[in-house]
Amino acid sequence: MLSKRIIPCLDVKEGRVVKGIQFVDIRDAGDPVELAKVYDEQGADELVFLDISASHEGKKTMIDVVRSVASELAIPFTVGGGIRTLEDIKETLRNGADKVSLNSSAVQRPELITEGADYFGSQCIVVAIDARYDEPSDNWVVYTHGGRTPTEWSLTDWAQEAVKRGAGEILLTSMNKDGEKTGFDLPMLEAVQSVVSVPVIASGGAGSSEHFYDVFTKVDADAALAASIFHYKETSVGNVKRYLKDKGVPIR
Question: Pfam families, per this entry (predicted)?
């Protein structure tokens, strides 16, 4: 089993880190630069920065904030939100990101995944997928624009298409589980892992160290992302890592 990664996520709106439940009821969680510094010191394996209002409001990613956060980090840094063109990818990587996360723009124009992968390599291109379980169709439906807009894509079809286009990693968020702290959506992760060969990052639902243990041992996710339990100091990256190490999970 490869070493597992623990990844805090900074959802940023208007220069502040925020967190909601099922993509709504947003509340403030702090300064992105300060939090980035804390997570680096705590031993996070990577950091994800998502400008959650950029795609919905038609804005570009806040490059000045990205630059400030990157200056505090010694760990890999993924940035997403408002990245629509190859030039945007270039600018984001130039200003301190190690990878870019493509979501709405990739669904609207899948060629962007290929353009980024051809220019920088697949290892720099993460495709983030937000999906909600749809009972009538007994499937997960892909959403864009911060969970506001349903698409025609089913989860597994879009995951396969994204990888075929050049995605080197999938960041998979369960909209049903987001902010609920009841555990990761294991069936959803299993469904995607069964159809793609690239690493899958689990997102949505982390509420305890046990939830990380479940996602690494029951479905063998490559990495797990969390926000509110770290931001509001319910636990720390270090505590989660110690728990997992004690349980025999390989941790970096």
Answer: His_biosynth (PF00977)
- Exposed, middle or buried, 214 (CB in 10 Å: 0-12/13-18/19+)? middle
Overall residue count recorded for the chain in this entry: 252
- pLDDT tens per residue, range 2-18: 899 999 999 888 788 88
Q: Round to whole Å and give the CA distance between 171 and 178.
A: 13
Contact 75, 126 (CB under 8 A): no
pTM: 0.93
Which band of pLDDT confidence, cut at 50, 70 and 90, is reported for residue 167? very high
Enumerate the domain spans of the chain.
5-246
Active-site hit among 40, 51, 130, 222? 130
11 in active site: yes
CATH for the stretch 5-246: 3.20.20.70
Provide the pLDDT for residue 27.
Answer: 64
Is residue 130 flagged as an active site residue? Answer: yes
